[in-house]
Amino acid sequence: MSTAATSLPPGPKGLPFIGSLLDFQRRPLQFFRDLERTYGGMATAMVGKRPVLFCFRPEHIRYFLVENPRNFIKPGTATGAGLKLFLGDGLLTIDGEQHRQQRRLVQPAFHKHRVDSYAATMTRYAQETIEAWRPGSVVNMASEMQYLTLRIITKTLFDVDSIEQTRQLGHAFDVVISNGPQRSAIMGRLIPSFSAQREREEGARTIDTFVYNLIAQRRKTGQDTGDVLSMLLAAQKNEAGAMSDKQIHDHVLTFVAAGHETAQNTLSWTLYLLSQHPHVRAKLLAELQTVLGGRLPTLDDLPALPYLEAVINEAWRFYPPAWRQARIAIEDFELDGYHIPAHTITILSQWVVHNLPDVWGDPENFRPERWDKQSGQTIPQGAYFPFGLGPRICIGMPFAQLETRLLLATIFQRFVPQLAPGARVVFQPLVTLRPRYGMPMRLDANDMLIPALQKV
Ligand code: HEM
C-alpha cells in the first residue's frame, strides 16, 4: 500500500455527528445534483461518520467501471450488508474471482440469439395483459407492468407460468423493496419498525418458497430445457463450478428481482413521459402505424422502428431506473490530483451524469431526437450508463432492450395511456427509481389503429 498522504475533495460540512446523512437518506436526488452544481466533478460528503466520495464526470465513470474495475468492489459484498442481505450470493452481490467465474457460467443464457428467442413470449404476454384492459378505465400502470415483466422473466428464464404465483410474488417484492434494509451498506445499520420488519420477513418467505419450489420441481423432472435454471443445476454437478442449493437460490432470486424491477420502472416512466410530451407521442404513433399498421410487433420489425428505440434510450437518460451505483476501493488510488484512501465508498450517479449540461446541451428536455445519429450529438463514453459499464455491465441488457421495445409497441397498438386526472407522480429513489404512488393512467383507445387491428 502507498504511504502518500491521503486527501479527499471538498464538500458540505453537514451537521455535527451525522454530517449529510439526512439529505442522503431523505432527498438524495436533489442532494446529488446540488453537490455537482456546488462542487463540480468531485465532492465528499460525510454520511454519519463515513466520508462518501461522489464522482460526476464521464471520465470518472470510465475510470471506475471500465479501466480499473478490479480495484473497486461493491459495498456490502464483503460485510453482508445492503442488497446482499436480500439477494445473498447472486451475480449482483458477489465480487472478484467468484463473480468472474459465475458470470461466465450464466452468460450463454443471455446471448443475443437466445434472448431473441424470447420475443414471441414477450409480445404474447403483453397482448394478454392489454386484452384485459377496458378503454376509458384507469389502471395502476406500475402494477400492471410489474405483473407483466415478472410473468415474462419467470417464463423465459425458468419456464414457470402461474398467474396466481406471479401476483403473490409481485406483492412480496413490493413489500421487501419498500421495507428493505438496502441502504444500510452505506449509512450503517438502520433499525426498521417492527411492523415493517415483519412484513419484510413475510415477503421474503413468500419469495424463498417460490424459488426453492422451482428448484425442487426442476430436479424432480430432471429435464434440461436449456434455460438459466438448467445451466445452474448442471453446474452444480460439475466440480469446477459446483454450487450449493443456496447459491442456485440466490442466482434465481437475483435474476427475478433485477429482471423485472428495472424493466417495470422503465415502462411506467416511459409511458408517463409520452403522456406528457404529445409531439413525441404523435411521432412514435406515426412510426408504429407506418411500420406495423396495427399488427403486433415481431423481432424482425425492430430495426425499422428507430424512433421507438430513441424514445426508450431517452427515457433511460431522463429517468434512469438504476440511478446510482456504489463501489469501495480495495487499495488507495489517485484521481484528479487526490490520493484517495482504500475503503473509501464512491457513488457514481446516472441521475447526475445523464443530466450534465456540458455533455447533453439541454438535459432538461425529453428529446428522443438526440439519439438520431444524424443529430450531431456526440456522447462520450461514461456519459450514459443506464446499464452500468465494463465487466459488470448488466447481463440482462439485451433482454431489457428487446422487452421494453416489444411491450411498448404492443401497448400502443391498442391504447394511448394518459396520466389519470389528479394522479400524484413522485419519485421514490430506492434500489431503483420508482414512482412512489404508482402510476395511475387512463386507457384511451388508440382510435387510429383500432380499425386496422380489426382487419387482422
Ligand atoms: C431496464 C432494465 C435494466 C436496467 C436499467 C438495469 C441496470 C443494471 C445496472 C446499472 C447494473 C450494474 C450494477 C453495478 O455494476 O453496480 C446491472 C447489473 C445486473 N443486472 Fe440489470 N438492468 C436491467 C435489466 C435487467 C434484466 C432484464 C436482468 C435479468 C434478466 C438483469 C440482471 C442483472 C444482473 C444479474 C446484474 C449483475 C451483473 C454483474 O454484476 O455481473 N438486469 N443492471
Automatic annotation (TrEMBL):
<protein>
    <submittedName>
        <fullName>Cytochrome P450</fullName>
    </submittedName>
</protein>
<dbReference type="InterPro" id="IPR002401">
    <property type="entry name" value="Cyt_P450_E_grp-I"/>
</dbReference>
<dbReference type="InterPro" id="IPR036396">
    <property type="entry name" value="Cyt_P450_sf"/>
</dbReference>
<dbReference type="InterPro" id="IPR050196">
    <property type="entry name" value="Cytochrome_P450_Monoox"/>
</dbReference>
<keyword id="KW-0503">Monooxygenase</keyword>
<keyword id="KW-0349">Heme</keyword>
<dbReference type="InterPro" id="IPR001128">
    <property type="entry name" value="Cyt_P450"/>
</dbReference>
<dbReference type="InterPro" id="IPR017972">
    <property type="entry name" value="Cyt_P450_CS"/>
</dbReference>
<keyword id="KW-0408">Iron</keyword>
<comment type="similarity">
    <text>Belongs to the cytochrome P450 family.</text>
</comment>
<keyword id="KW-0560">Oxidoreductase</keyword>
<dbReference type="Pfam" id="PF00067">
    <property type="entry name" value="p450"/>
</dbReference>
<keyword id="KW-0479">Metal-binding</keyword>
